[in-house]
């Protein structure tokens, strides 16, 4: 019969016994060999139709001018002309949101990276399906701040944030329905299938995705806690 150990003894053995850690540690958990699920276990997306005003705002941004349509005498005329202009400039008709599920959250070291990663994923999906990125929602479970991260968190909170950068995604060389790069609507199925291609993903991250006017403070070091 195997000897039962306390929680404290279990955690200590994970830190000091490499063989024990290999058998019962994170790798063992994420491979599905234990009941405890991995920290990240899925995401889902949902869409909604953009209102007429929202589409008109996108139209104004795309054309860099204000579409007041002063010659329209009724709501029906305004709607008809707005929809015509939106179609002419290929303005999206729907918005898409993403929600991810996370069992365990390291607030200081992990959560900022998680938010950025899923935010980028939402932007990529929105580009592929021709929609506007909308809400990013984290369904977070065990959300914790470790004792040896408290001072670092206080320092982070006390900083004055910089202006947010602009994310630019170049889709010129993404697969299209026409089969020719840069011509016609993007082919979402081919794009998602391309994610299994290491070369496509490398190009996507290194060349097609760029941040403009990005500024950051000096890094704050914090130990990885288990």
Question: What's this entry about, in short?
Answer:
By secondary structure, this protein is an alpha+beta fold. Helix content is 41%, strand content 19%.
What does this protein structure show overall?
- With 226 residues, the chain is an alpha+beta fold.
- 41% of the residues lie in helices and 19% in strands.
- The chain has helices spanning 7-16, 18-24, 26-30, 52-63, 75-88, 111-129, 150-157, 188-194, 198-208, and strands spanning 40-49, 94-106, 132-144, 166-169, 209-212.
- The strands form 2 sheets. The protein has a 3-stranded mixed sheet with strand order 1-2-3, covered by helices on one side. A two-stranded antiparallel ribbon has the order 4-5.
- Strand 2 (94-106), helix 6 and strand 3 (132-144) form a beta-alpha-beta unit.
- Unreliable runs, pLDDT <50, ≥5 residues? none
Q: Structural class, judged by helices and strands?
A: alpha+beta
- How far the N terminus sits from the C terminus, by CA atoms, comes to 28 Å
Write down the overall mean pLDDT. Answer: 84
Helix-strand pattern: HHHEHHEHEHEHHE
How would you sum up the global shape? elongated
Quote the beta fraction.
Answer: 15-25%
The main sheet comes to:
3 strands, mixed
Strand order of the largest sheet: 1-2-3
Number of E-state strands: 5
**Tally of individual helices:** 9
Radius of gyration: 24 Å
As a percent range, the share of helical residues equals 40-55%
Characteristic terms for this protein:
226 residues; alpha+beta; 3-stranded mixed beta sheet; 5 strands; elongated
